[in-house]
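Handout for the seminar on molecular recognition.
Each group receives one record of this type.
Step one: identify the two inputs.
Step two: read the structure output and locate the region that could contact uracil.
Step three: write two sentences on what you found, then compare them with the reference statements printed after the record.
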Amino acid sequence: MRAVDVIIKKRDKGELTGEEIEFFVDGFTRGDIPDYQVSAWAMAVLLNGMTPSETTNLTLAMAHSGEILDLTGVVDIAVDKHSSGGVGDKTSLVVLPVVAACGLPCGKMSGHGLGFSGGTLDKMESIPGYRVNLTTDEFKQQLRDIGIVLTGQSLDLAPADGKLYALRDVTGTVQSIPLIASSIMSKKIASGAQAIVLDVKVGLGAFMETLDEARVLANLMTDIGRLAGREVVALLSDMNQPLGDAVGNSLEVVEAINTLHAHGPADFREHCLQVSAHMLVLGQLAQDLESGRRMAETAIATGTAFEKFRVLVHAQGGDVSFVDVPGKFPRAKFVEVVKADRNGNLSQVNARMIGEATVALGAGRARKGDPVDHAVGFIIHRKVGDQVEKGEPLFTIHANDAAKQIEVQEGLRAAFGWSDTPVAALPLFY
Ligand code: URA
């Protein structure tokens, strides 16, 4: 079998067999199939799609491209969560300590930013010293010892996804339902999760812009998970506007810390409470969503969730003084509050434009392996449905480059849509 024939078959809209998919995944995991062929193949998949059976085969091949973590004996029920990617989505930074504080041990492997969407690892790496490269043994030991882990995908787990993910980020091949479904589910299967809450984002700042596409992705992922013997719940959540107020790595860490102190933005807090409640139900610690939510609220109100976050940061080598005094995070050189230039009701706060502007400021990558600037980003002061008066703060830019700041400032004004009549607030979940 030759890699080029697999690429040609997909280019010509053929259905790949399980054997062809395994050959291709094995080849690029071992480094026998070079990046340029993998990129061409990914583009063919993006353009021509995959059948559910091809996607399932791809998921299983990627999951088995490395070790499959066995968490029996480490936790009673391994519950995990994963978001399909969005703008301002710092949910794991709050939900993990919340559920762990409630007594549900939770170890998660996250990713770096992908396209315009932020990545949990880039956010956590803004805490000096924080390690995201734990080995599988360290992962298990930490989960046993403190009940919480938030790290990168270990090289031993689903290495095929690790390679493909980094290539997709810089080859315009992120937005593909089969590639997203197999990327997420291969990681979850490999990391030993028995029950999974999938947060499927929908809207302008998500990879799935319509509810129909998001449903297809959610159903595909739940089907793959169930086929692999996992219990899966998928939520469809809004990503037309950023989640919370902060977009950008350390700005989001600070917002997560505020939320753990019960001072975070209401939409983000509510989102975290609902995701936590689902995890607590799947982990059999809560009988229903209502009691799961109350447990999560208590973990925040009593400070136990914040304490878990501190313990997590300390365990992974991060400087906890930044968690205790978030003012220590380096501030960008240019911080400017941009004010509304008219009265009106906000009808759009375009998450995609904000995500792209954040990457343009340096918070994301243009090429594989590029460094990211942790300090830059935006604070969005107003949301869809808000009535705004001329002169009120609309957003704050944090930039380290004066030219880039000017460039994104005007562009970002266009992310805000206006109406003269009242506009309903957007729902958090669909
Ligand atoms: N999250 C992932 O892990 N993979 C994707 O492809 C998209 C979001």
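Reference statements: The mean pLDDT is 95. The chain is about 45% helix and 15% strand.
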